[in-house]
Amino acid sequence: MTMVTDPYSGLQLIELSHEWGHGVPSMPGQDDVVMFRAVKFAQHGVMAHRIKTVMHTGTHMNAPLHLIQRGADLAAIPVDRFFGNGAVLNIPKKSYEVITAKDLESASPGVQQGDIVVIVTGWHHKYSDAIEYFGESPGLSKDAAQWLVKKDCRLVCVDTPQIDHPLATSLGPHRGGPQMKRLAQDYQKATGLDPKKEHPEWNAAHKTLLGAGIPTIEQVGGDVDVLAGKRATFAATPWKFGYGDACPVRFVGMIDPAGKCRIDAGN
Predict the structure, then answer these.
(1) What is the CATH number of the domain that holds 213?
(2) Whole-angstrom distance, CA of residue 165 vs CA of residue 55
(3) Alpha-carbon span 253 to 86, nearest angstrom
(4) Contact 25, 15 (CB under 8 A)
């Protein structure tokens, strides 16, 4: 477990990110991360990497620009979106299940207006280059996204590969899909449901959130189980990336067991 206690403030800091690098799971239809040492210790006495990557890998933040034409890019998102109090909702889900507004309403602790919301389904334990991880993951329904918008959430985070159910994305029979050729057939066989009827809109939940100006973090991981069902303070560190639709992000949760920490006055 990656928990560190700051000796000055007494804050406990909890890692909420998956490790990023060579071999990180990449979305079907997208290229893998490619990285190599352009400068090496044995040859130059220093090390520096060159990297080619899709920004939507590992624990990453999406700006509204990702799905909303002329939406805010990463550089334009106000910094107060990246820090604040919120709730870690423990909503366990199995293969192909949907996170609904009712799930959010009944989850503990309750979501307050302006919260950062982290939704934990347990899917972060399956994080891997696997058909199950990408194709069978749970996802938010459109009404769940609308519920979060009404709560004026400053940031919405999930431990799944994407905000939406995979059958509502291009992994299924939408837009340029299916990127996973057998997904619709496997879904229908496993659930008895018609994917086109159950998930008729492309990225409806994610477009709802980003359209409301709410950035999102996908593939939350690390030790998020430590905070499941609790309130905490969160900090995310995306790039100040002009015209950037997404980037890998370090995401951290903070709790104050002693209740003595305060922010410096800056004097």
Answers:
(1) 3.50.30.50
(2) 20
(3) 10
(4) no
pLDDT digits (tens, 9 = 90+) for 181-240: 999 999 999 999 999 999 999 999 999 999 999 999 999 999 999 999 999 999 999 999
Residues with Cβ within 8 Å of 121's Cβ and at least 6 positions away in sequence, in order, are 91, 92, 93, 99, 137, 138, 158, 159, 160
- Residue located via tokens 């090390």: 47
The band of 261, judged by pLDDT with boundaries at 50, 70 and 90, is confident
- Per the domain annotation, does 104 fall within a domain? yes
CA distances from residue 109 to 42, 106, 157, 230, 253 in whole angstroms, order as listed? 53, 9, 15, 6, 16
**Tens-digit pLDDT profile for residues 150-185:** 999 999 999 999 999 999 999 999 999 999 999 999
Q: The domain containing residue 234 runs over which residues?
A: 3-20+56-255
pLDDT digits (tens, 9 = 90+) for 38-83: 999 999 999 999 999 999 999 999 999 999 999 999 999 999 999 9
Rounded Cα distance between 134 and 128, Å, is 9
How many domains would you assign to the chain? 1
- Is position 45 within any domain? no
Q: What is the pTM of this model?
A: 0.96
